[in-house]
Design a protein that fits this description.
With 381 residues, the chain is α/β, with parallel strands linked by helices. It contains nine helices and 18 strands. Strands 17-16-15-14-8-13-12-9-18 form a nine-stranded mixed sheet. Strands 1, 2, 3, 4, 5, 6 and 7 form a seven-stranded mixed sheet that branches. Strands 10-11 form a two-stranded antiparallel sheet. A hairpin with a 5-residue loop joins strand 10 and strand 11. Helix 1 crosses helix 8 and helix 7 crosses helix 9.
C-alpha cells in the first residue's frame, strides 16, 4: 500500500467550528477511515499538528483525541518540511498575517472564511500564493451539504427550466446572555474584533450564488443592529456595535434574482436553520441543510385569495421529497478530501483563495450599499 502522508498545521482549531467540523469530523474522520482512497493500493493520510496561543487549550484538545501533536510555536512549524499544508481557523483579524507567513514559508494554504478583513488583503493573499507557486483553498462548505447537492442535481438535470428567483432564509435566535448563555461568541457582535453578520454570511452567499445560480453582478443590501445590548462569556454587559441582521438582494449574470435574509435575531419557523427556495418556470424546490423538496408545475395548486375563510389548500401537501439516492459525507470533510487530492495528485480544485476573496468583496459591497442606501455593481476581481 502506497501512503502519501500529508502534514497539516492546524491553527485556531480550539474553537467550536475548528474542533468539531475541521479536526474531529474531517481530518480525524479521514484518518479513522484509513485515509483518502486514491486506488486499491494508494491512499492519502493527513497528519495534523495543532497550533495556537493557549497551550492549556491545545493540551486538553490533544488529550481528548488520542494525543495529537501540538505547539504554540507557529514559526517553528512553518520551518518544518514535514508539514506541507497550513490551515487557518483563527478569528478573521489574525488570519491575514498568519497566512502571509505560511505562504512565504512555501506551505499550501487552506483557509476558513472570511479569508481576510478586506478584499484588498484577500486578493493580496491570492496573488502571493500564485507567485509562490503554492496551492490554495478557501472553505466553502455549504456546497457539499446534502440538501444543496440535491438542489445542484435538480439544476443540472433541467428540472426548473429557466430559474427566476431564489429566496434564502438563514438564522436563529441567539440568546443575549442575560437569561441564559449565548450560543455564539461575543466577538461576533464587536466590529473591532471582526464581528458582523454581513462579513460572516455574505462570504457564504457569494459562493452559493456563484456556483449554483450565476455570478453576482450587482446587489442592494442593508444591515441592522436589532439587539444592541448583550452579555459576554464572563457575564459582563457590553454594547453591540455591528450588524446582527442583514437583508440583501443579488442579481446574477443569468438574470436570477436572489434575496437572502440573515439574522441572529429571528425565531425559526421553517424547515431548517437555512433554507433556499428556488422558483423556475417548470418547477420549484426548497432545500435545507440535508433535505430538499420539489413541486412541479403539474402539481402546483391554484389558490384564490379569500381572507374570509380558512384556506382549503394544504400548501405543504403537494411538495415531494427528493430521494437520498447516495450517501452524503460531512460537507467540510468532503471539501477537505478534494483539497488533499488537489495537493497530492494535482487534481482540479476551483475553490481557491481568489474565490474566498470574492466573498470578502461581496461583504464590503454590502456595507457600501447599506451606507449609500443604493444599488452597487460587483466588479471583477
Amino acid at each position: 500500500m502506497k501512503t502519501h502522508t500529508v502534514g497539516i498545521i492546524m491553527n485556531g482549531v480550539t474553537g467550536r467550528m475548528g474542533t468539531n467540523q475541521h479536526l474531529v469530523r474531517s481530518i480525524l474522520a479521514i484518518r479513522n477511515q484509513g485515509g483518502v482512497k486514491v486506488s486499491d493500493d494508494e491512499v492519502i493520510m493527513p497528519e495534523p499538528v495543532l497550533v495556537g496561543r493557549n497551550e492549556n487549550k491545545l493540551r486538553v484538545l490533544s488529550e481528548a483525541h488520542g494525543g495529537i501533536k501540538f505547539s504554540t510555536d507557529l514559526g517553528a512549524l512553518l520551518k518544518d518540511p514535514n508539514y506541507t499544508i497550513y490551515f487557518d481557523a483563527q478569528t478573521t483579524l489574525l488570519r491575514y498575517e498568519a497566512v502571509k507567513k505560511a505562504i512565504a514559508a512555501g506551505k499550501h494554504i487552506y483557509c476558513e472564511k472570511p479569508i481576510a478583513m478586506t478584499s484588498e488583503e484577500a486578493m493580496d493573499l491570492h496573488r502571493r500564493a500564485e507567485t509562490a507557486g503554492v496551492k490554495s483553498g478557501a472553505v466553502q462548505d455549504k456546497l457539499w451539504l446534502p440538501g444543496f447537492r440535491k438542489l445542484k442535481y435538480l439544476i443540472d438535470s433541467g428540472f426548473f427550466g429557466r430559474i427566476l428567483s431564489v429566496r434564502g432564509e438563514f438564522g436563529y435566535w441567539v440568546f443575549t446572555g442575560e437569561d441564559q448563555p449565548a450560543q455564539r461568541p461575543s466577538w461576533n457582535y464587536r466590529k473591532a474584533d471582526g464581528g458582523g453578520i454581513i462579513l460572516d454570511m455574505f462570504c457564504h452567499w457569494r459562493y452559493v450564488i456563484d456556483n449554483l445560480f450565476g455570478n453576482v453582478t450587482s446587489l442592494s443590501a442593508m444591515g441592522a443592529t436589532h439587539l444592541p445590548n448583550r452579555v459576554d462569556e464572563q457575564g459582563k454587559p457590553y454594547q453591540c456595535d455591528t450588524d446582527d441582521a442583514a437583508y440583501g438582494t443579488f442579481i446574477t449574470d443569468q438574470g436570477v434574482v436572489c434575496h437572502f435574509n440573515s439574522s441572529w435575531c429571528v425565531r425559526v419557523r421553517r424547515d431548517d436553520l437555512l433554507t433556499l427556495q428556488v422558483d423556475g418556470v417548470n418547477g420549484s424546490a426548497v432545500a435545507g441543510l440535508r433535505n430538499c423538496v420539489v413541486q412541479h408545475n403539474a402539481n402546483t395548486p391554484k389558490p384564490v385569495w379569500n381572507p374570509d375563510i380558512d384556506n382549503p389548500i394544504d400548501f405543504y401537501g403537494s411538495w415531494t421529497p427528493v430521494p437520498t439516492n447516495q450517501n452524503y459525507d460531512n460537507a467540510f470533510k468532503a471539501q477537505w478530501e478534494l483539497f488533499l487530492r488537489h495537493v497530492v495528485l494535482d487534481e482540479p480544485f476551483r475553490w481557491t483563495l481568489k474565490e474566498g476573496a470574492k466573498g470578502v468583496q461581496l461583504a464590503e459591497l454590502g456595507y457600501a450599499s447599506w451606507k449609500k442606501r443604493a444599488w452597487v455593481d460587483v466588479p471583477a476581481l
